[in-house]
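BUG: 3D viewer hangs when loading the predicted structure for this chain

Environment: internal workstation, default settings.
Expected: structure renders.
Actual: progress bar stalls at 90%.

Input used:
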Amino acid sequence: HIKKYFVIYFFEPCVKADINLYIQEDLPGWEGAPFQLVWSKSDGLEEWCRASNSEARVRGESSPTLYEELLIHGDERFWAWLVYVALHTKRGEYYSAAWSFADLRDIVEKWHAYLQGERSFTPRHLERRMPAELAGRFTSLFPQPTRDSLRRAYCTLMELHEEQRNAIRLRLGLSWKISEDGVRRVKSIISEI
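Structure tokens produced before the viewer hung:
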């Protein structure tokens, strides 16, 4: 996430909350609507929220479906979590990184199921259901708690995710919130491992 004011909370076990923080002097335009004001002591924010949501409706902006929003959020979550886990690896915390890798693998597995037209991912008979080369790539997403094993797994994970990302973008016409520059920055972190 590359936003001016942003907080990511990590809770145990494996729960993450993303919260955008806006200040009155730097509020986003109507393009981000619809907005929901949760709490405020200022009438100005309520007026801004109403006006922004109204402007978006007038302009007829089509917002992504709930499922598209989940895909967009999954992409943001993937890159944010990848940085978090990679930094563990850079600090030599290999076991922690290998243990946390399951959350990253989960995103790639769910997206694989979506692209195959399945409701959910199931590992049952995976080796029979997908081409051997692809099954081998998925197998490498179970890294050992060593620097080299984690680095190889990160590289394969990013390749798979980017392939899926492109396929979903082409299928649905989605615009990802993580820029190509953001992706390059994450790849740079991985290359330093």
